[in-house]
Amino acid sequence: MLHLRMITPHHLTEQVVELIDQTVGTTHLVVLTGAAREPEGDVVMCDVAREAADELLQEMRTLGIGQSGSIAVENIDLSISRRADAAEEEAPGEAADAVIWEQLAESTHEESTLTITFSVFLIVATMIAACGVVLDNAILIVGAMAVGPEFGPLAGICTGLVQREPKLAARSMFALLVGFAAAIVATTVFSLVMNALGLFHAGMLDNPRPNTSFIWQPDPFSFVVALLAGVAGMLSLTSAKSGALVGVAISVTTVPAAANAAVALSYGEFGQMWGSALQLLLNLCGIILSGTLTLIGWKLLWRTQQGRMTRPPGAPQHNFKKR
What we know:
With about 325 residues, the protein is of the alpha+beta class. The protein has helices at about 10-20, 50-65, 65-70, 80-90, 100-110, 115-135, 140-145, 150-160, 165-195, 205, 220-240, 245-250, 255-265, 270-305; strands spanning about 1-10, 25-35, 40-50, 70-75.
């Protein structure tokens, strides 16, 4: 369940209440007349099943509540209420499958902006991966994948393309390109410093590295894994199962590929550098392609549910069951 709190102008309150009454999966409606001071208006609160939230929010936006008032959405971790249980039963579909596009756009916006924190995380992850590829240490590679924040901009690109928000897609692409460029440059310098300290040497790149050799030797499986990772990543965002992002990070080789390219560049091993660059490009393109297609498929799927989100006029609440 989700909790909605809205500040509505006085002349729109009746329409908002009627809209909530007509939407299946809603309950616990509260209206506080004249309670809002900034902006001035009424406070309307209700609980809504996650499955019905996206269409209700779109209707609220259509009424202009986002411009003349405000809409706040909170997750309800626990709701002990027979009415809430009935509302969830009434809403078609399953909560785990529901996509709230406004929430998705907001979360990807926060994760897809080029910030100092994002850049530092990506640089540190690439440096950790550099140690991993040089030492052929799979543990360090997995650790670097987990630290890397690159999936945020990738998700932002997918969301921007599907939602037709070019600014979000462009901002995400900028963060991705600049972030990886900075990480590769910084890791190249890091490799040279490690070489000067005697911790890295050119022979390490020529030694057999069975655990990490795939990083600069892309093959069809590289693209297949990237496609699967894109699907898993977008599902983890749309279903709010963020823990799955760890699995996505382990599944792909974006950061390790960038790290190997940087180390190879520092030693003039251009064959490995271009192989790593191709691996990186394949993974980025694969994730964007499958992530975008996943969101398109999810959007088409939930369009089939829209006709079942409205309660017929005069029908009592919680009279319908999931079909």
